[in-house]
Amino acid sequence: MSDVIYISNAILSFHHLVEPQKRIDSKGNERISYNCDLLFSPEDPAFAAFMKKYGEMALAQWKEHAGSIMQIIQNDRKLRCYGRGEEKVSQTTFAVHDGYAGRVYLTAGKPVNPPQIIQADGKAVDPSNTLAYQALARKMYRGCYVNAAVKPWLQKNENGRGIRCDLIAIQFVKDGTPLGDSSIDVSSMFGAVTPPAAPTVNTIPGLPPFML
Predict the structure, then answer these.
(1) Do residues 140 and 66 touch, judged by C-beta distance below 8 A?
(2) Which secondary structure element, helix H or strand E, spans residue 39, and what is its range?
(3) Is the pLDDT of residue 211 over 60?
(4) Rounded to an integer, what distance in angstroms lies between the CA atom of residue 65 and that of residue 58?
(5) Mean pLDDT of 94-113
(6) Which of 1-10, 38-47, 183-192 has the highest mean pLDDT?
(7) Cβ proximity of 12 and 171 under 8 Å
(8) Start-end of H helices in the chain
(9) pTM above 0.90, yes or no
């Protein structure tokens, strides 16, 4: 538990909690994960705790090379799970994603199996109760506030060194301002739908009624 960091009142974004995200890796293998971005102020104590833990882990793992390796990771966003919100931009408009400016983010995920979802009473929902689990997962949307438990870990494999973050558990806290397209109100573009006119029924003596 000493490596687990508790985050309170973070803004949820780009989440895959109901259904996992599926990706094909460089070897052609399908990889699935339940993941999300957590947004908060740069001064948030949870972000400071994450960076402190990252530094301690890097020093223990990489010893005298920790500073140099951390700088390499800092210079390559693909090698880290954290960053300034301004780094997250749309690949089509090149604008900073809605809600990210002025904030920092953590990307946390869990492969194969979904994370724990905590109910309002503080108890984890039984994962075997699929309906209850998905009902809580669907309650969360981009822009709502959540609490989360995450666990940072150091990557060291064929893809290089990096810092990643496991999503251990997540809990809906309260509603927020929806982010992205879900916040756009386009109702003014539509008008009322005129119901179709009732069909005219004609009759000819000796024959059944028919419609025009």
Answers:
(1) no
(2) strand 30-40
(3) no
(4) 9
(5) 95
(6) 38-47
(7) no
(8) 45-62, 66-74, 130-139
(9) no
Distance CA 155, CA 139 (A): 32
Whether 27 and 3 have beta carbons less than 8 Å apart is answered as: no
Structural domain contains residue 115: yes
Residue 186 lies in a domain: no
Mean pLDDT across the stretch 77-95? 94
Average pLDDT, the chain: 89
The C-alpha atoms of residue 38 and residue 147 are separated, in whole angstroms, by 9
* Backbone region of residue 146 per phi and psi (left: phi > 0; alpha: psi in -120 to 50; beta: other values): beta
CA angle 164, 110, 86 (to 5 degrees): 50
Does residue 198 sit within a domain? no
Number of domains in the chain: 1
CATH of the domain at 120: 2.40.50.140
Q: Is 31 in contact with 23 (CB distance < 8 Å)?
A: yes
Radius of gyration, alpha carbons of the chain: 25
In this prediction, residues 193-208 reach a mean pLDDT of 64
The three-state secondary structure class of 143 is coil
- Domain carrying residue 104: 5-181
